[in-house]
C-alpha cells in the first residue's frame, strides 16, 4: 500500500509481504450487509469473591492525527469491502518506541468511484463514539491525498471463524459458546443504546484479544439513528416482557406494566415530548404477602430493568452476509435493531454446530431458505435444550415475535442458556482460549519468508491490495 509520500518503495515492499489469518470470505450482499465475561456456576453458600480482571495487553496510546510516513506496515491481515487491514507500527508513539496497531487503509478515489464514502464515514464516526471493553479503540487517524487510515487495537487471536476451524470437529463446546455469546450480547446492547444497529454480526467479525476476550469489529454496514430523535428509555418490571413475551396492542405503553407510560422514563432530550406522568394507584396486598395487588410485580420484591434500544428504527437497505441475513431484510419489509438478534441466533448456531442453519447450494437458495424453511437442528453434537430454545427464540421469522424485539438484550440476558453468567463481571471470566504471546519481530520474519512467493502473484499497480471484507 503505497501512500503518497517519500517511502513508497519501502511501503510497496511491505505490501508484498501480505499474510492473512485465513478467514474464508462469505459473500456480502447489499450495496456491495460492560466489561469482560464471567461464566460462573451456581453454588451453595456465600459466593466466593470474584477474581480480579485479567491483565490487559499494553494498549497503544491515543495517537490523534498521524502522518502516513510514521506508519510501518508489517503485513496484511485481511481485506473488506471498503479497505484492507494491516498489522502496523506507529513510530515514536511511546517515548520513541513504536505502537502496534491494526491499520485499516482505504483508497479515497476507489471509495468515491464506488459511492462508498458514506460507509467509511459511518465507521469512523462510530469508532470515535464508542467506549466499551468489547469494541475497538480508535487510537488515531492518518490522512493523505489518496489514502485514509484508521488505527485501532490489534487482536493477535484472529477471529472466531478461524478459531472454530481449529476446534475438534470444527465447533466450540457449549460453555465456550456461552462465553463468546455473552460478550457479544453485552457489545450489542451497548451499541444499541448508542442508537446504532450493527447488521453484520458473524464469527469473522468477532476477534480475540490478547487476553482471550472478544472485540466486535467492522462497522461500515452499521445503521446510525437520527441523533435528533431520542430513543425511548424504559424502566420495566414485567417478568413476561423480560422473558421475551409480547405486549398488548391495546396498551398505551410499549411494554405492559411499564412503570412510566408511553414514551420514556428517562427523556434523553428533556425539552421534547414531555407528558404528564400519572402514578398508578396500587392496592397493597392484605396479610403481609409482600406482593402488590393488581400488578405483575413479583411477590418477592420489585425487580427493575433499564431498557434503551432503538426498537422502532427502520431501514430498507439490503445489507449483510447472505447466510446471516434476517428474513425481513430478504423480503424488503424494512428492518430495525431486531436484525441483530436474528444474527445472534445464526452466530450461536454456527458456533455450536459448525454450520449455519439456512445455507443452500447457492446464495439464492440460501435466501429462500431464510424466508421459508423451518429451523432444524442437527442430531450431532448433542446440545442442551436451553441452547436450542435460545436459538429458536432468536430465529423467529416474525421480527415482532423474536427474542429481544420488545425489550432488547434484557430478555436475552435472562434466558436459561445464560444461567450463571455474571453480567456485571464479564471480564473476570476465564476465556476458553488465550492466544500465545505475540511479537512483531516474529510476524515480520514470517512475512519475509513468504515475500518471494507473494511477489510472484502480485501485480505492479499501486492500488490497495485485495477486495476488503475483514477488519482487525
TrEMBL record:
Domain Protein kinase: 71-418
Catalytic activity: L-threonyl-[protein] + ATP = O-phospho-L-threonyl-[protein] + ADP + H(+); L-seryl-[protein] + ATP = O-phospho-L-seryl-[protein] + ADP + H(+)
Gene3D superfamilies noted in UniProt: Phosphorylase Kinase, domain 1, Transferase(Phosphotransferase) domain 1
Gene Ontology molecular function terms on file: ATP binding; protein serine/threonine kinase activity
Keyword presence, Nucleotide-binding: yes
Record has Iron-sulfur as a keyword: no
Record key words, sorted: ATP-binding, Kinase, Nucleotide-binding, Serine/threonine-protein kinase, Transferase
Pro residues biased stretches: 45-56
A Pfam entry, by short name: Pkinase
Region (Disordered), start-end ranges: 1-60, 274-296
Entry's EC annotation: 2.7.11.1
Low complexity: bias regions: 18-44
Biased amino acid composition, Basic residues: 274-284
Family membership noted in the UniProt record: Belongs to the protein kinase superfamily. AGC Ser/Thr protein kinase family.
PANTHER family membership: FLIPPASE KINASE 1-RELATED (PTHR45637)
Protein name: non-specific serine/threonine protein kinase
The organism of origin for this protein: Oryza glumipatula
